Amino acid sequence: MVGVLVSERIGQFFVETHAGRDRLEFTEYGAGDAWVVLLPGELLPRRMQQPLARTLAAGGLHVLTLDLLGHGRSDRPADPQAYSVTAFAEQVVALLDHVGAPQAVVGGPSLGANIALEVAAIAPSRVRGLLLEAPILDNGVEAGILTFGPLLLTARFLPLAVSALRRATRPVPRGVVPFWAGIALDACDQRPAAVAALVHGLFFGRAAPSALERRRIRVPALVVGHPWDPMRPYADAEMLAGELPDATLVRARTALEWRLRPGRLDEAALDLATRAWHAPRRRRRAGS
């Protein structure tokens, strides 16, 4: 599929929260009725999913990439109550409503994987399959606190440091640096009050569906685990694959395999999404 061209369109929609009306931005790749929604990792823009989105669209899927609230080019309110995994999952459902997609395969890395699980928990009829890379569950809690706790404290009590990093990195033209260097620069484009609110909201909200809820998710799922990744330990991916009734577990060769050598995992994702759309949709039994 190398060299296959697919259409790309940028769109926006609005969500209502207790604090007001917020704008979210997304990119649409390809066409058709076999929808896929790709989410970014924490603090990263939707552009990180551009390579995979193009691959899936070239394979005949209709792909959306979304900047969640507080990410990328979407609005960034400075209110901790605006941010939670459940709120992000509701934004995915709102995106599906906006484009008129009854169902989609939903996925992403890290935070994106947790949100995809939450979509399957709160709106099971909207999820056709799951692409879950390096979820953060029981075994990754301590490392997550050690990683994002200092960011929260810095944004709250040393906001000039966050602003200085933004001012230093924002002028760098993204077109003159390698793709993933540009994504890293985008991740540095943070506003202190907004990033503090986002991390605060994630710390004190629900991180993922419970193990009982996860066992009730009966759609095809690809679970990709990272080796030697303390914040997103392989043990969490292995545990999740054992809980989901229709999961395929793949061990990445390195934590950066899907970024630097994506061919093998791209193929696995395309196979899963295609299988999810060609398989009959299972009906949920009463009481399940």
Observed structural traits:
single chain, 288 residues, Rossmann fold, 8 strands, disordered C terminus
Sheet-strand content, in percent, reads 15-25%
Largest beta sheet: what is the strand line-up? 1-2-4-3-5-6-7-8
What value does the average pLDDT take? 93
| Distance N to C terminus | 40 Å
Q: Bin the helical content.
A: 40-55%
- Count the E strands: 8
- The backbone outline, from C-alpha atoms, is globular
Order of helices and strands: EEEHEHEHEHHHHHEHEHH
Task: Output the CATH class name.
Answer: Alpha Beta
Largest sheet: 8 strands, mixed
Which ranges are low-confidence, i.e. pLDDT below 50, for 5 or more consecutive residues?
283-288
CATH superfamily grouping: Alpha/Beta hydrolase fold, catalytic domain
CATH topology-level fold name: Rossmann fold
Any idea how many domains? 1
Radius of gyration: 18 Å
Structural class of the secondary elements? alpha/beta
Per DSSP, the total helix count is: 11
Under the CATH scheme, the architecture is 3-Layer(aba) Sandwich
What does this structure look like?
Keywords: Hydrolase. The protein has 288 residues and is an alpha/beta fold. The chain has helices spanning 50-58, 85-99, 111-122, 141-157, 159-169, 179-187, 192-203, 211-215, 234-243, 257-260, 263-278, and strands at residues 8-17, 20-29, 35-38, 62-66, 104-109, 127-133, 221-225, 247-251. The protein has one domain (8-142, 204-278): 3-Layer(aba) Sandwich (Rossmann fold), CATH 3.40.50. An 8-stranded mixed sheet has the order 1-2-4-3-5-6-7-8, with helices on both faces. The radius of gyration is 18 Å and the shape is globular. The N and C termini lie far apart (40 Å).
